[in-house]
Design brief:
The complex is a heterodimer of chains A (about 200) and B (about 180). With about 200 residues, chain A is mainly alpha-helical. Chain A has helices at about 5-10, 15-25, 40-50, 50-60, 70-75, 95-115, 185-195, and strands spanning about 160-165, 165-170. Chain A has a two-stranded antiparallel ribbon with strand order 1-2. In chain A, strand 1 and strand 2 (about 165-170) form a beta hairpin. Chain B is mostly helical. Classes of the chains: A mainly alpha (about 200), B mainly alpha (about 180).
């Protein structure tokens, strides 16, 4: 919303301000709220677009009001009894001293680790990956070494297999050392018949 | 010694730098604090805390504004803080009515009371704006920086504060006569 120059100056009219002055006279007290009423947005906005009103306002506020002349300012108290706060110099406070001590101890410990004990393994920087060749060959099976196979007579005869229906059974017993109570298939059948008869 | 030299010395932790800042601006800050708080001891507390805060953070002062404006900005907020602390402690909204001390001639005392009485009847921000503009010679832009508002807003605030002071001033003289 834009306002005219006349409206702008009407809003700044001392008569309007004087209504507040009248209230101040009546109350005789200072407003508790430190923030005085803000000028409205339209009044402020007019100053942005109107150099004439801005110049007029600058001239109006250039000089102090009657009664507030420099001579009266001189009457204001100018002596300050407050003691100048002196900031502590570095190293004078307990905190600074402790900080310096801790820094020194940390630096000495770091120097000790580096020079006396060396850099620990886990603290070393990770180097770029290096491809290594892994071999599952035994030392005597190095490339170039002729393969050796077991001779027929060296075959382990006690490892035998037999096919039963669709499955295959393996035994690691030496057949010569194994023994059986059944002589042949006929004996097994007879034994079965004996049991079935009761 | 100019502000740049003062700040440079203070940044090095040199006592003469702090002392020079204090001597140059202590009374300005005190006047603002005293006029806003209306109590000498509270004003002195605010001044002390203002300079303590400023000296602690002097390294953060980048010189984008004048040293005086930077100190005023700290002081304004310290004054508000001291006032709130006092009100909480005293349980009252009214600050004490303290006459400024000092052995001054009778004429000065009268003038002082006149100005003080009128100023004290103005809202706090009006008082602060009048003091900064006409006593401390801060520009409207600098006052805006202190109050965290716009320059045009300060101009309107200053215009109205002038009008209020002028409206109260003759009335004050009539009451006394």
């Amino acid at each position: 919303m834009t306002i005219s120059c006349a409206e702008f100056r009407r809003r700044l009219d001392p008569a309007l301000t004087m209504r507040e002055v009248g209230r101040l006279r009546q109350d005789g007290a200072v407003q508790a709220d430190p923030t005085a009423p803000e000028p409205d947005a339209a009044t402020l906005g007019h100053l942005d677009i109107c150099p004439d009103c801005l110049g007029w306002l600058d001239r109006e506020i250039a000089a102090p009001p009657a009664g507030l002349q420099p001579a009266f300012w001189e009457a204001l108290p100018v002596s300050v009894d407050a003691r100048m706060p002196v900031p502590p110099a570095p190293g004078t406070t307990l905190f600074h001293r402790l900080s310096l001590l801790l820094t020194g101890v940390a630096a000495a410990f770091a120097l000790y680790l580096i020079t006396v004990r060396g850099i620990p393994q886990h603290a070393r920087p990770i180097s770029s990956p290096v491809a290594e060749t892994l071999s599952f060959l035994l030392p005597e099976e190095r490339p170039g070494t002729p393969y050796s196979f077991l001779e027929p007579e060296q075959e382990l005869s006690f490892v035998t297999s037999s096919d039963v229906d669709d499955s295959q059974s393996w035994t690691f017993l030496d057949q010569d050392a194994s023994f059986s109570f059944i002589e042949d298939e006929n004996d097994k059948e007879e034994l079965w018949e004996d049991h079935s008869r009761g | 010694m100019n502000d740049g030299e003062r700040v440079a010395l203070a940044r090095q932790g040199r006592p003469e730098g702090f002392r020079s800042i204090w001597e140059a601006y202590g009374r300005y800050i005190f006047t603002l604090a005293f006029r806003m708080l209306k109590d000498r001891s509270l004003a002195e507390d605010a001044v002390q805390e203002t300079f303590a805060a400023a000296f602690r953070s002097i390294r953060e002062f980048r010189g984008e504004s004048r040293l005086k404006t930077w100190l005023y900005r700290i002081a304004y907020h310290e004054v508000l803080r001291v006032r709130e602390r006092f009100r909480r402690g005293a349980g009252s909204a009214e600050l004490p009515d303290d006459l400024p001390a000092g052995g001054t001639p009778h004429d000065d005392l009268e003038a002082r009371i006149d100005v003080r009485t009128v100023l004290d009847r103005l809202p706090e921000r009006d008082r602060a704006v009048l003091i900064m503009a006409y006593w401390d010679d801060l520009s409207c832009t600098e006052i805006a920086d202190v109050l965290s508002t716009t320059t045009n807003n300060v101009k309107i605030l200053l215009y109205r504060a002038r009008a209020k002071f002028a409206g109260l001033w003759p009335r004050q003289k009539e009451v006394e006569s």
